[in-house]
Design goal:
This protein has 95 residues and is an all-alpha fold. It has five helices and no strands. It has helices spanning 5-13, 30-38, 44-57, 70-76, 79-90. α1 (5-13) runs antiparallel to α3, α2 (30-38) packs antiparallel against α3 and α3 (44-57) packs antiparallel against α4 (70-76). The longest helix is centred in the middle third of the chain and has 14 residues, at 44-57. The protein is globular.
Length: 95
C-alpha cells in the first residue's frame, strides 16, 4: 500500500462512484472537495461519500459539508458505496 496520504485517499475515492466527478479528488484537495460537497450539486449520497473521505483525511476538522454520519450514509448509499466503506473499515487508516 502506498504511504502517501493524498494517493491513498484518492485510491479510496476511486471506490466511491459518487465522487468520480467531484472537485478535489484528482489532484487531491480536501478544501475543494468540501466546497463541492457543501454546495448544491451533489446528491445526499454523494455528500455522505465526500464527508466519509474528509473524515478519513482529517476527522478533527469542522468541514463545511458537515460531519460524517455512518447511519445516514448506510441508509442512502448503494451496494458499491457500502462495500467501499466496509473494505476500508476492515483495516481502517487515516491520512
Amino acid at each position: 500500500m502506498n504511504d502517501d496520504p493524498s494517493i491513498r485517499v484518492r485510491m479510496l475515492a476511486q471506490n466511491l462512484p459518487g465522487l468520480w466527478k467531484a472537485r478535489g479528488i484528482s489532484p487531491w484537495d480536501a478544501v475543494a472537495l468540501d466546497d463541492w460537497a457543501a454546495g448544491g450539486d451533489p446528491s445526499h449520497g454523494e455528500r455522505c461519500a465526500a464527508q466519509f473521505l474528509l473524515a478519513v483525511w482529517n476527522p478533527d476538522e469542522s468541514w463545511k459539508s458537515g460531519q460524517f454520519d455512518l447511519m445516514d450514509a448506510l441508509r442512502v448509499w448503494d451496494a458499491q458505496h457500502r462495500r467501499a466503506f466496509i473494505e476500508w473499515a476492515l483495516d481502517p487508516w487515516w491520512a
